[in-house]
């Protein structure tokens, strides 16, 4: 039972009973509830802070595991980026240099993906570790872009390797007459005494002396563009090797190919003879690059050892008499 309270009334000089209104009772009750709510909230906060539930403990452990995995993932991304940088440097300085291709600028290789801010639309800003997630996504996307550029570079290198292989097979690189059949290197590239006119004229090829009927071989892959008689040269074969190269084989006794025929290096195209302006059986052999005659001796590298090549150069430099009509006046294009 509630305790009755009194107060002393100075007007009546007597104790009067304290009367509490209903409003006061309600306000007192509400105040009590308010204070109780504050105390309960403080107690609950302290309890949840220092005594988390089993579910909260599980969520916190999962959060820490995810943070650890993100850190490991970022480390692996950094290691992958370092490996990719090494591949990019090797690609630019070695592979692309071998195939004479322009290096890919590093600023192009490392081009960004628009900045990390583009990921804020897909990552909630209320996420505690949003910056970590955004930076990881940015690194992954940037790594993927660099890998894509590198794969395209390798595709280009594969095409260049195929083209290079085809080019190396096409460039004149062997003697058109086998070493065992060669009697002598009769005359080289340069000004020589013409055997018929007895004046010094430009000899635009080299004369390889060999017995009549000796096989003549194509010095590189290509297509026959001429297989016919040519003024001064006699029976002549011309082969277009592509890449700016053309070879001419003159004074032949027999022609074994026809115009338009595709030829492989080392394939027999005819026989040594002495047709046209020639004084003895030999092959007059020319190499043209971009429409101009060049020294054929520089294109015998697949057949000769260094010592043999030096000997050939010495023989080619002798100012002797050519055996056939290899002067400029006999060019018939």
User: What's the CATH H-level superfamily name of the largest domain?
Assistant: Glucose Permease (Domain IIA)
Which structural class do you get from the secondary structure elements? alpha+beta
Biggest sheet, in brief?
Answer: 10 strands, antiparallel
Report Rg: 47 Å
Molecular structure report:
The structure is a single chain. A hairpin with a 3-residue loop joins strand 8 and strand 9. The radius of gyration is 47 Å and the shape is rod-shaped. The protein is 39% helix and 22% strand. 24% of the residues are buried. With 333 residues, the protein is an alpha+beta fold. It contains five helices and 14 strands. It folds into three domains: 6-50; 64-170; 179-330, Distorted Sandwich (Glucose Permease (Domain IIA)).
């Amino acid at each position: 039972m509630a305790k009755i309270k009194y107060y002393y009334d100075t007007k009546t000089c007597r104790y009067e009973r304290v009367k509490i209104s209903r409003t006061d009772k309600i306000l007192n009750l509400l105040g009590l509830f308010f204070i109780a709510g504050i105390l309960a909230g403080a107690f609950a906060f302290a309890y949840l802070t220092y005594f988390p539930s089993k579910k909260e403990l599980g969520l916190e452990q999962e959060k820490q595991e995810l943070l650890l995995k993100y850190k490991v993932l970022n480390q692996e991304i950094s290691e992958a980026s370092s490996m990719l940088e090494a591949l990019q440097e090797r690609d630019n300085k070695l592979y692309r240099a071998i195939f004479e291709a322009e290096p890919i600028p590093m600023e192009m290789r490392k081009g960004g993906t628009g900045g990390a801010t583009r990921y804020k639309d897909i990552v909630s800003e209320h996420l505690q570790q949003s910056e970590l997630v955004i930076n990881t996504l940015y690194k992954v996307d940037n790594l993927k872009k660099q890998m894509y550029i590198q794969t395209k570079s390798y595709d280009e290198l594969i095409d260049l390797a195929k083209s290079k292989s085809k080019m190396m097979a096409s460039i004149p690189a062997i003697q058109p007459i086998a070493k065992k059949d060669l009697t002598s290197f009769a005359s080289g590239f340069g000004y020589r005494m013409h055997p018929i006119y007895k004046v010094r004229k430009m000899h635009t090829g080299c004369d390889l002396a060999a017995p009549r009927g000796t096989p003549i071989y194509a010095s590189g892959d290509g297509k026959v563009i001429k297989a016919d008689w040519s003024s001064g040269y006699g029976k002549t074969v011309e082969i277009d090797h592509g890449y700016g190269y053309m070879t001419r084989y003159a004074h032949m006794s027999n022609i074994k190919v026809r115009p338009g025929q595709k030829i492989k290096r080392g394939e027999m195209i005819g026989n040594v003879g002495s047709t046209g302006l020639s004084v003895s059986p030999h092959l007059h052999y020319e190499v043209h690059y971009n429409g101009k005659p060049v020294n054929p001796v520089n294109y015998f590298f697949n057949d000769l050892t260094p010592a043999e090549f030096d000997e050939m150069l010495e023989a080619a430099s002798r100012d002797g008499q050519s055996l056939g009509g290899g002067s400029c006046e006999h060019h018939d294009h």
